[in-house]
Q: What sequence folds into this?
């Protein structure tokens, strides 16, 4: 019986009827609770800002708490090859949402991921299992990788800090504020 999905399976290992799982054009995405379409809210370098993150739904009070978790290690990202596939949480993977895969953190928990030596950070919802590449501790969605500036590098050393639901709400508000004031 196969339970894990998303980054747990190599591309092409599932039977994808007519490629629907990878089709992204004109698709309606169900972003994780609390974020909306994060990629649209985060500008590409040198582009105008979109404040759609300000319209994000509130983070649910119920759910796992990972506030005592701390880890440092190498993160990578995954995107188009897994877009639309089911994750271990049952959600469909959305490369434009702020999510991540971790081997042991509770599904539905939130973590703050930062790049040492920079001011870059992002809050992501853990919705999948992985990574399964040796030496890596976290697989970020493309949107989260873009926020951290590692979409071109592919991997980077990161600090992972578990958040309570309340801490995740505060961090989300900080992300909205930073998105509306940075130019």
A:
């Amino acid at each position: 019986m196969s339970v894990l999905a998303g980054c747990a399976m190599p591309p092409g290992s599932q039977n994808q009827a007519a490629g629907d799982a990878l089709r992204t054009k004109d698709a309606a995405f169900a972003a994780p609770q609390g974020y909306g379409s994060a990629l649209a809210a985060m500008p590409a370098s040198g582009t105008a800002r979109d404040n759609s993150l300000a319209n994000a739904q509130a983070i649910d009070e119920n759910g796992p708490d990972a506030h005592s978790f701390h880890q440092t290690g190498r993160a990578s990202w995954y995107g188009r090859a897994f877009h639309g596939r089911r994750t271990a949480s049952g959600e469909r993977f959305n490369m434009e949402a702020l999510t991540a895969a971790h081997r042991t953190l509770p599904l539905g928990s939130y973590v703050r991921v930062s790049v040492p030596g920079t001011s870059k950070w992002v809050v992501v919802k853990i919705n999948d299992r992985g990574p399964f590449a040796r030496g890596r501790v976290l697989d970020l969605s493309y949107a989260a990788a873009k926020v951290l500036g590692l979409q071109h590098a592919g991997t980077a050393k990161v600090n992972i800090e578990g958040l309570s639901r309340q801490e995740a709400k505060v961090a989300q508000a900080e992300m909205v504020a930073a998105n509306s004031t940075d130019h």
Remarks:
- Residues 1-57 have pLDDT under 50 and may be disordered.
- The first strand starts at residue 70 and ends at 78.
- The radius of gyration is 15 Å.
- Strands lie at 70-78, 99-101, 110-114, 121-128, 136-141, 155-163.
